[in-house]
Amino acid sequence: MLTNIIKNNNLKKCFRQVKNYSTIIKPERDSKYATINNQDINYFQNILDKHSVLTDPSDVEGFNQDWMKKYKGTSSLVLKPKTTEQVSEILKYCNNRKIAVVPQGGNTGLVGGSVPVHDEIILSLANMNKIEGFDPITGVVTCQSGTVLENIESYLSPLGYTVPIDLGAKGSCQIGGNVSTNAGGIRLLRYGGLHGNILGIEAVLADGSIIDCLSTLRKDNTGYDLKQLFIGSEGTLGVITKVSMITPPKPTSVNVGLFTCDSFDKVKTILTRAKSQLGDILSAFEFMDRPCIDVVLAHQQVQDPFDNKQPFYILIETSGFNETHDSEKLNDFLESIMNDDLIVDGSLATDTKNISAFWKLRESITESLGKEGAVYKYDLSLPMDQFYSIVEIMRNKFEGKANVVGFGHVGDGNLHLNISTPKKPYQKEIFDMIEPFVYEYTSSHRGSISAEHGIGSMKPNHLHYSKSSNSIHLMKSIKNTMDPNNILNPYKVLPN
Amino acid sequence: MLTNIIKNNNLKKCFRQVKNYSTIIKPERDSKYATINNQDINYFQNILDKHSVLTDPSDVEGFNQDWMKKYKGTSSLVLKPKTTEQVSEILKYCNNRKIAVVPQGGNTGLVGGSVPVHDEIILSLANMNKIEGFDPITGVVTCQSGTVLENIESYLSPLGYTVPIDLGAKGSCQIGGNVSTNAGGIRLLRYGGLHGNILGIEAVLADGSIIDCLSTLRKDNTGYDLKQLFIGSEGTLGVITKVSMITPPKPTSVNVGLFTCDSFDKVKTILTRAKSQLGDILSAFEFMDRPCIDVVLAHQQVQDPFDNKQPFYILIETSGFNETHDSEKLNDFLESIMNDDLIVDGSLATDTKNISAFWKLRESITESLGKEGAVYKYDLSLPMDQFYSIVEIMRNKFEGKANVVGFGHVGDGNLHLNISTPKKPYQKEIFDMIEPFVYEYTSSHRGSISAEHGIGSMKPNHLHYSKSSNSIHLMKSIKNTMDPNNILNPYKVLPN
After folding, report:
1. Are A312 and A340 in the same domain?
2. Where is the signal peptide, in residue numbers (chains A, B) (predicted)?
3. pLDDT in tens for each of the 496 residues of chain A?
């Protein structure tokens, strides 16, 4: 099963043990890149105002590091353009001078994609934060890429619309970063991903040329759909400066159900039932195994939801436009799965307080695990038949040595496999028991080693577990075509 | 408003007046391509079985021409591979020999994309027609690219699922062609487009290398999303051999409403209301103006739906999973738009016979217009504010000279503007009154000159009306990177 895995290239690299999670391979600085000098800074001060060129180390520091304090660069310059034309002038100059650049949005990523690896200039989009237009008939919103996701939601909500993407980081992540990383989140089951919801993108290529694909049309079959290239390429192919997005009407009725069942096969059957009986009002289908619940109960002020402990807990959310209809559907669904002995216990919540209590069980898992000790985290997509098996395999492997838990967006096939040990810091022997096994298992079942977090600077050398050598070769050809000097977000996404 | 339109290049081209629709620019054969010889045919007979290499002119004829008999090539060879490896061997050979190739699916396109312009080899995918897998939990289906769309629907229907795309041509179009052309159709409003619904693609590049991105995962953020490049690039970047697609549960309850109103502003308001009140069960929002109804009444056995003639007719379809709920929603919606004087008349149909009668009004427009004389057809996407204005402008322009009608998928912003004259054949003076005006108008409002039909060999020289020179330049760079000898579907999509 594992024979078709491509061997990792023998890369020129230095290893370092980082504080959290995993051994990170940090490549050496590529000497082809220029280091910035006063003349460069003068140039940037001429095209931007002085408040938009940060050189004071205390100003720059926060931009050099990610929010988890896991990745840290050594940049000495942050540029904060306000217009697409300024982004264009900056990149044109950097391309000519061979200065490397890392675009940065809200800096809320998990794989080190938005901070410099070495001394790359940080191009912050934070000052490009205007909502430029909204069409109340079509629901299409257009905004600059630095607009904070929550601000778009606040703008749309009184107009009866909602953003089709929702993340825990919504208060600080920016739409340009969401698009660049093809962020997933909890609404994906209901509204689909960004490749479907983003209608237009304006982006600046490495040579400064502006690609205006800022369409607000749902249908446009005129040539290649270039905007798709920028979605999920983590700022390595161009800097996104504006996006237009279709937004759905805001649901007015929300219900949540919590259920337990005694086998993962039943979880799968309930998913199928939910999809057909709840139809389009189904907006979340999350699962947690019992060890998740135990961890949450140990660290949070919450009650065990049912007297009867069961191996699997499912949270189902519906969002619709008719409270009576939605409740009826959810009740019919509950009756049907109870009659067929698919669940052991079940409870419905329709008021905000109880809904929050149910969601708290699911949303506290990560924080609660953090209180247990060291947590080794994996964000996988797996086919349904292998979805929970990897948790069981790892649990057997770690019996008596670590707590292995599984939870996640089962409706999207996205498993969060977490392995926690009481001991800190992270131990090599635990990593060796997990990697490359988990990656090889995922690869052999055609899964994804990064369902929603991306590759960044964390996983370029693991890319081959999810993509073939021909695919990686084609990605490199496209990168080389669009950014021949490799100035945009170097050391990220693609292996050397 | 029209100043930013890029001037057409001075192309080496020969004009010809074709039977239907429009003046087509047919480029000269590029002498860099080899012409096939017996040795080539022997080679292909060695890698395919003899029934899969068609050289008899009577066998080849049907593949040389599109179904409208509008575009015709002069190919002498059709290859019908059965496996991806055979496609790979064919392309590798053609690339080395610089033999041009046109991939062909069901050959149901409207812009000449799937037939040879000159003597390109026709690579028919018709024999690659197997459904390879279906996951009843996730609803993901995987099949070879030559699978006829209707066959996928027939396969899924008894399993309680449905394809997210539906077209008039479903009985003969193939899924690979649908994906290559990013086909739209009537379910787009409900399920979104193929960029969101296609989860994986296997494709063969011009040099024969196989790009296996045949993921069945909803979430996979590992590197660039290469499959997106093949969606809508009309076979110019690679030959799609397999696809995987997410399929939604099949709705069990369908209702249709027909309404009239006295202004297009009210049509727009009703669209907004329908989106918020009907929510996710809204599956079609089509409009026709009164001249469309008059044409249908003149040529079909149908009755005027209401005594009171009005300028605009709207057809709204809902598809859901609960008949009672859906009817209630549609009734509440009807009451609300009547109370606010948005509509003049309205009628609901819930049984198959009446539903068909309502749809017949909409679906007979094209056929009925065809009986009037010469029809000049334009498939545009326009912002809502300009959506109907172009029909009124053209109607004023043609007063007394031609019948100008507008209809289409208003829910998707997709207008079909049709201008019919009693006289055949098509007249240059009529074209001159329409083009380039309609394209320039569309361009100045950032619309699309091809909402769903694509570019093919019909519109490469009109691409600049919807895409900037930087975008076209980037498309050409990508084409050159992926197919440096330009053997795949030459003379199509991109201007010289």
Report:
1. yes
2. none
3. 222 322 333 323 333 333 444 445 689 999 999 999 999 999 999 999 889 999 999 999 999 999 878 899 999 999 999 999 999 999 999 999 999 999 999 999 989 999 999 999 999 999 999 999 999 888 999 999 999 999 999 999 999 999 999 887 899 999 999 999 999 887 888 999 999 999 999 999 999 999 999 999 999 999 999 999 999 999 999 999 999 999 999 999 999 999 999 999 999 999 999 988 898 899 999 999 999 999 999 999 999 999 999 999 999 999 998 999 999 999 999 999 999 999 999 999 878 888 989 989 998 998 899 898 888 889 999 988 899 999 999 999 999 999 999 999 988 899 999 999 987 778 889 989 999 999 999 999 999 999 999 999 999 999 999 999 999 999 999 999 999 999 999 999 999 8
In-domain check, residue A9: no
B162, B178, B222, B416: which to substitute to probe chain A, counting the most A Cβ within 10 Å?
Answer: B222
Q: Are residues B257 and B358 in the same domain?
A: yes
3 state SS for chain A: CCCCCCCCCCCCCEEEECCCCCEEEECCCCCCCCCCCHHHHHHHHHHCCHHHEECCHHHHHHHHECCCCCCECCCCCEECCCCHHHHHHHHHHHHHHCCCEEEECCCCCCCCCCCCCCCCEEEECCCCCCEEEEECCCCEEEEECCCEHHHHHHHHHHHCECCCCCCCCCCCCEHHHHHHCCCCCCCHHHHCCHHHHEEEEEEECCCCCEEEECCCCCCCCCCCCCHHHHCCCCCCCCEEEEEEEECCECCCEEEEEEEEECCHHHHHHHHHHHHHHHHHHEEEEEEEEHHHHHHHHHHCCCCCCCCCCCCEEEEEEEEECCHHHHHHHHHHHHHHHHHCCCCCEEEEECCHHHHHHHHHHHHCHHHHHHCCCEEEEEEEECCHHHHCHHHHHHHHHCCCCCEEEEEEEHHHCEEEEEEEECCCCCCHHHHHHHCCHHHHHHHHCCCECCCCCCCCCCCHHHHHHCCCHHHHHHHHHHHHHHCCCCCECCCCCCCC
For A326, the closest chain B residue by CA position comes to B325
A381–B137 CB contact, under 8 Å? no
Q: Which residue of A has its CA nearest to B451?
A: A220
Domains in chain B: how many in total?
4
CB–CB of B209 and A470 under 8 A?
yes
CATH of the domain at B357: 3.30.70.2190
What is the value of ipTM here, to two decimals? 0.92
Same domain, B347 and B277: yes
Domain shared by B222 and B292, yes or no: no
| Per-residue model confidence as pLDDT tens digits over A184-202 | 887 888 999 999 999 999 9
Cβ–Cβ below 8 Å for B226 and A474: yes
Cβ contact B280–A280 (<8 Å)? yes
Q: Please indicate if any CB of chain A lies within 8 Å of the CB of B251.
A: yes
Domain assignment of residue B114, given as a range: 27-127+478-482
Let me know if residue B22 belongs to a domain: no
- B229 to chain A, any CB pair closer than 8 A? The answer is yes
Closest Cα of chain A to B51: distance in Å?
Answer: 31
